[in-house]
Amino acid sequence: KQALEIGPGPGGLTRALLRAGAHVTAIEMDRRCLPALAEVEAAFPGKLRVIEGDALKIDPATLFDGPYAIVANLPYNVGTALFTGWLSSEQWPPQWTSLTLMFQEEVARRIVAAADTSAYGRLAVLAQWRSTPKLAMKVHRSAFTPPPKVMSAIVHVTPDPAPEGISMRMLARLTEAAFGQRRKMLRQSVKGLPGALDVLEALGIDSQRRAETLTIAEFAAIARHLSRYATAGPLTITPPRDTCPTPRARGWSRRRCRCREKHPGPARHAPSRGRIPGCAAAARRAPPRTRVCKR
Q1: Under the phi-then-psi rule, with left for phi > 0, alpha for psi from -120 to 50, and beta for the rest, what region is 260?
Q2: pTM over 0.70
Q3: DSSP code, position 182
């Protein structure tokens, strides 16, 4: 089996992988470790390939012709960047078959966190929407020389089938906006994404909620609709018949509009300016995102 190791150091984990029968490609940036890795390479001829370079600048897909597993004790300063890069490929399922990685325990808990918990955030959404991460084991600081100040943990990730109709780029933009202002309501944090407020209304998601309360499925649904919005244009939202058609004025009278005309029968105002439903006359009199109806 082919395996990719990032930051092998003197080769402790590398030897264990080779003894287990794996063919290992190791990427090491520290030149001081190269002589030790050369000794390991000599002890296991034809099974170890050492590449000197920066793992952030090397595409693993160019190193393998077939599937491979990534096994690494990631450097803490670049671990999250490498991890999100492997998860962000538009091609899915990816060429790698599994990720077995060591992180700081705090980062590991953020990867496997459930919704509406303090550790839940962007990293959990990116890791869980089309893959399954599991906390394999904890590693005490005394296992390292010299011992670090933090505890570590190993996370095992396997890819799952990707939900249809979702752009990875759109999901990344959505989670960046939603968790970039974590304590703000969604109506404030995602308003910079075109169509986001309309999508929340269409899906029945309360815009006063915070990002940490949304489940993985809800993030996936929002990203799917935003992906369609980006290609098909503004959404047409049909308001409930028993409420005012303006999102901000629900519960108000639906027969008196800012155009000061009484509309006979159920209020069926056409979408105005692609954002806030309202009649054309009201749209000319009031800027977008203002109350349209009066008592």
Answers
A1: left
A2: yes
A3: T
